[in-house]
Please model this.
Amino acid sequence: MFLQQGSSSGSSSSSSSKHRALVVEALRRAGIATHDGRLTVLAQLAATGPFDEVFVAIDKMLEIMKNEEASDLARMQACMADRTADTRDAITISRQLDTMTDAVGALASDIEELKKEYAEKEKEKTETETELAEAAKIRSDENAVYKIAKKEDEDAVTLIKEATVVLEDFYKENGMALLQSHRQPDLKVEVGIAPPPPPASWKGYGEKRLEVASVFTMLSTIQGDIEEDIKKADLAEESAAKAFEEVKASLEKDLKDLKELLTSLAKTQGQKEETLVSTKEERGGKADLLEATMNKIKVAEPDCYFFSVNYEARLRNRQIEMDALTKAKAILRGADFAMKDPKRELKPGDAF
Model:
């Protein structure tokens, strides 16, 4: 600390010389301690120049050093804030990249599974279509055979009917009672007793009448058998048609479900492929951003590290300089430092 003493207007030149010498020494020692050439130049000015010029120079130096101190503090804070923010950003981006990489892997796996499932369902659809086509062909062939057989049976029945009519007409025209012969006349025959002989009016045509009756009976039996076959064939056709319709409905439902599933799989695959592309693009952007952030940290780190390490030394040296300038200004104004403050004493060993 110092005690200021007012100087009278009649101060001796020896007192001024003493003050000047103290100022020069203080500035010189501060310049040596801080390695600041500006103090050396100011010491030279204080040794020879007018006090007013020295005051102006000291005030300018103090102002410069205050600005430097504020600049260093702002730079230090910005350096720390930027490094913290950049590090935090790098960590965040890195985590986002990890998440996106996992997402890309999951999407690629999902797409492969969808492709596999799609191929399986497409194969199943093809097999179902083939099965339906084969069933339809079998049904068509069966129906064609049925129609041909029915037509042949119906033609046969028609032919038998026509033949019967022709035979009936022929024997009627020749005076033969055919109706009774093939329709069984009202002859009562008891079991174990021979049938009565034919009427005398038949005159030798009895055997022929029996033959004719047998023919008509055979034709009638054949016609009945054919008509029964037609009924059975109709029932079989109806049953086959019904069974086919059931199979067809089931296969068509399967095809519809498979087509809907294939459409859904294709849509889902397309969406996932779009997401995969966008995720890869976003991941590429994040990778570029991470690289830029790491480069920023790498470029700023040497300067920031150097400044951080030397900040305290720069601050201490600047305080020494400002203290010396303030002290020099006080001395020139007549202050006398009767007591020394060890904490404010300049140490030649102090260095920037």
User: Anything to note?
Assistant: The chain is about 80% helix and 0% strand. The chain has a mean pLDDT of 78. The helical segments are 13-34, 37-48, 51-173, 178-182, 206-332. The beta strands are 3-4, 335-336.
